[in-house]
Every structure is written in structure tokens, then in C-alpha cells.
Write a structure and sequence with these properties.
There is one protein chain. The chain has a two-stranded antiparallel ribbon with strand order 1-2. Helix 2 packs across helix 6 and helix 2 packs parallel to helix 13. The chain is built from 18 helices and 2 strands. The chain is an all-alpha fold.
Length: about 450
């Protein structure tokens, strides 16, 4: 009698545990938001760490480590670059691969899938790119620093979403979706700007080879190849071709991502039918008191279930799910650690903040983003081309427009491409950090004022 009672309790506990796991399971959208928010905190910590190191006695060691030559491969098949170069051109290619996956997902099934719904974040992103670029150009027109016009165009998703999550459930989910769609279009714009305007002298043979490899990637997609290995090998070859072509190598990440299959291997009906069949067989093989590890047939059935679930999930989903954590919590923080170390002399900080590059970046990120995103959003709504997401107000759009002025990761990346001049680069980085801090604080306060605790759901 006691054993029956214990087994019953164990079954109830197992059922409760399963129910909890189902309740805790998140949609891809929720998982993406959670990872971006957490990544923002890690990114902030690495930024502070880099700033502390750069302004301490460790700065010389920090610079020496970043400029240490690192060789990968051997003989004629070797590449030697500084550690800093490997981070910015190598690791960041994986970041751009994730950006490409996000762009493809959003266009297929996300906020950008519905034409009328997509018009609002697309228009907002265009306004948020064009206006900051014009403001920066106007301030630096006629100087050598004008090449940095692309710096204030970018929005950092991780930091922006991280600030939104500080406000909790009082922020409508639709507003988070709007910000993500806006930032992803923004990333796409930044990729196009890098490709078109921040490219060195083109070596056409290498670029032709890149075109052939890109065609092979598309052919693999058309042929129904779903294993990640061929795409990984071809993606690395594409990166090498871009590296030698003069076009920035990180763009290989985006192009490779666009060829990753996004559809399931099978349709819903056979998937459900097979899972029912396996579940029934699994239950029929159950022997009371026998551990599942002793039942080889049950273990094979579980493995079959896992294989079928993997086939139902698209390669794009699997890659994004598995790589996103590495990008959010390793690659981007390492990039911040390598690029945010800015030595600042307090005596010269005031004059630095008054430099045209610094002013252009700050004005572009703070006022350019606010004016561009809000104005273009208001315009497409007024013209009837699109509408506000459910539960979202224009005041909240203004708050998000301020948050979009957090341009950390991509802005620093573009600054490194725009400037060989160390003074210009230093001024740009100081402008990015100052503007991102002000935009984050102002955006947070604006959104807090436009929502109340009564809005929480």
C-alpha cells in the first residue's frame, strides 16, 4: 500500500514538473528578448571593465595584447593578423551571421512579414538612419571627418531592449516588437552602408570567387541540404574571399545566413502522426519498476522523437537558438572589451566633447534618432499607410526613438571602418558612449512617464 502511495506521489510530482516546464517554455520572440536584455547587462559590464583598464596602469599591457600577431593555419595556408583584427573581422562575422538570420526570420514570419504592418518599423528605421547621417554631415561638412556620417545611423539592440526590460510588464509587448523590427531594419541598413561606402579597393578576382561560393550556398539550399556542416565550410570560404577582396569580411556572415533553410523538413500531419505512434509504443514498452536506461527500445524511441523534432524545426531556428547565446554572451562582450577601452584625460574631456566629430555623433544619435524615427512614424500613420501597434501610443514611440540613440556595438564598429585617424576615432568613441548613456537615461524616463503602474498586465 505504501509503495502504491509513493508511486502515485512520484507521478503527481513528475506531472507537476512537466507542467511547470511547459509553462516556462518561451516562444522564439520571448527567448530573443530575454537573451538581448541579459546580454545588455554583460555588455555594460565589459564596457566599464575596458574603460577602467584603459585608464589605469594596465593600459600598455591592454594595447600590447590587442596588437599581438595571431597566426591561424600553416605555410601558404596561414593568416596572420593582430588579435584586435581577428576580433573585429573574424568573431564579428559570426555576429553578422546572427544579424542575417534575424533579418531573414523577421522578413518571413516576424514583424516585417506583413506588408502594412512592416511599413511602420521600416519607415521609422529609414528616418532613424537618414536624419542622424544628415546631422553629422552638416556639422562636419568640408572636413576630413565627414566620412564618419555612418556612425550615428546604428542602434544597439541588446542595450535598447535591456533598458526596456527595466520597465517590466508596463511596456506593451507590441512596443518591444516594434523596437526589435526597427533595430533589425537598422542593422540591415548598416550592413548595406558598410558594403557600399566603407569598402577598400576591390580585388575583382576574389570578389568573383565570393560570388561563386555564394551561388553554391544557394544551390545547397535549393537541393534541400539541411545539415549545418556544408554551410559552415562554404561560409568560411566566403569569409576568406571577402577578406581578400577588399569588401569587409563580416558581410560574409550576413550572406551566408540568408542561404540557411528556413522551412521544416516535414509537414505537421505526418509529424503529429509519427509522434503519436512513437508515444504509444513508448508507453506499451513501459515496465513498472524497470529503469528506462535498462530499456534499450525505449531509449531508441526517445532518440527517434528527438530526431523528428529536429527535422520539424528549421535549420535557421536551430542555428539562431544555439549561436545566439555565444554571440550575446561571448562575442559581443569580447568586442566591447577590445574596442571600448578609451583612455580619457579629464583635463581634455571638455574640449573633446566640443570637437565636431563628437558633437556630430552625439547630435546624430540623440536628436537625429528622435526626430527621424518619430517624424517618419507619424508621417506613415497620418498618410494611412500603416497604423500604431495595439496598445502603443505616439508618446511611447517617442520614448523608443530616444532609446534607439543607443548605438554602441554597430556604431563603434563603423567608426573603426570610417577613421584611420586616431584622434577622430577617439572623439567618435567618446561621442558614442556619451550619447548612448544619455539616450538610455532619457528613453527610460520618457517611457516611464508615458506608462503607469496601472498599465501593467
Amino acid at each position: 500500500m505504501k509503495n502504491i502511495y509513493q508511486n502515485s506521489c512520484r507521478d503527481e510530482q513528475s506531472l507537476t514538473s512537466l507542467e511547470k516546464s511547459f509553462q516556462q517554455a518561451m516562444t522564439p520572440f520571448e527567448e530573443f528578448v530575454r537573451d538581448q536584455a541579459s546580454s545588455g547587462l554583460v555588455l555594460m559590464a565589459m564596457t566599464i571593465c575596458a574603460m577602467v583598464i584603459a585608464n589605469s596602469g594596465l593600459n600598455t599591457l591592454y594595447q600590447n595584447i590587442l596588437h599581438t600577431p595571431v597566426t591561424i593555419g600553416g605555410g601558404i595556408f596561414s593568416l596572420t593578423y593582430s588579435l584586435h583584427h581577428w576580433i573585429n573581422d573574424g568573431l564579428m562575422a559570426i555576429f553578422f551571421f546572427i544579424v542575417g538570420l534575424e533579418i531573414k526570420r523577421e522578413i518571413m514570419v516576424g514583424e516585417l512579414a506583413d506588408r502594412k504592418q512592416a511599413i511602420l518599423p521600416i519607415a521609422a528605421a529609414i528616418g532613424g538612419m537618414v536624419t542622424p547621417a544628415l546631422i553629422y554631415t552638416a556639422i562636419n561638412f568640408g572636413s576630413d571627418a565627414v566620412n564618419g556620417w555612418g556612425i550615428p545611423m546604428a542602434t544597439d539592440i541588446a542595450f535598447a531592449v535591456g533598458v526596456l526590460t527595466l520597465l517590466g510588464k508596463r511596456i506593451p509587448k507590441a512596443l518591444v516588437g516594434f523596437l526589435l523590427a526597427l533595430a533589425i531594419v537598422d542593422d540591415l541598413g548598416a550592413v548595406l552602408v558598410i558594403a557600399a561606402f566603407y569598402t577598400e579597393q576591390i580585388r575583382w578576382i576574389a570578389l568573383f570567387a565570393a560570388g561563386v561560393i555564394f551561388a553554391l550556398l544557394n544551390l545547397a539550399n535549393r537541393a534541400g541540404i539541411r545539415h549545418p556542416f556544408p554551410y559552415g565550410i562554404l561560409g568560411i570560404l566566403l569569409w576568406l574571399c571577402f577578406l581578400k577582396s577588399g569588401v569587409h569580411a563580416t558581410l560574409a556572415g550576413v550572406l551566408t545566413a540568408l542561404t540557411i533553410p528556413a522551412g521544416p523538413y516535414c509537414t505537421v500531419a505526418p509529424f503529429v502522426e509519427k509522434m503519436k505512434e512513437l508515444s504509444t509504443e513508448f508507453y506499451d514498452l513501459h515496465v513498472e519498476g524497470v529503469h528506462i536506461m535498462k530499456n534499450g527500445r525505449q531509449q531508441k524511441i526517445l532518440q527517434s522523437m528527438e530526431n523528428i523534432v529536429n527535422k520539424m524545426e528549421s535549420p535557421l531556428q536551430r542555428m539562431e537558438h544555439h549561436l545566439h547565446v555565444w554571440v550575446s554572451f561571448l562575442i559581443i562582450p569580447v568586442f566591447a572589451l577590445a574596442n571600448a577601452g578609451i583612455p580619457i584625460e579629464m583635463a581634455s574631456l571638455g574640449p573633446t566633447l566640443l570637437q565636431p566629430v563628437t558633437i556630430g555623433v552625439m547630435m546624430g544619435l540623440i536628436f537625429g534618432k528622435l526626430i527621424g524615427i518619430f517624424t517618419f512614424s507619424w508621417l506613415v500613420i497620418k498618410l494611412g499607410w500603416s497604423h500604431l501597434p495595439a496598445g502603443v501610443t505616439m508618446q511611447q514611440i517617442a520614448g523608443v526613438s530616444l532609446l534607439a540613440g543607443i548605438g554602441f556595438t554597430m556604431s563603434i564598429f563603423i567608426a573603426g571602418l570610417a577613421f584611420d585617424n586616431e584622434v577622430f576615432l577617439l572623439n567618435a568613441k567618446i561621442g558614442i558612449l556619451a550619447a548612448s548613456l544619455l539616450a538610455g537615461i532619457c528613453g527610460y524616463l520618457a517611457l516611464k512617464m508615458t506608462t503607469s503602474t496601472g498599465d501593467e498586465r
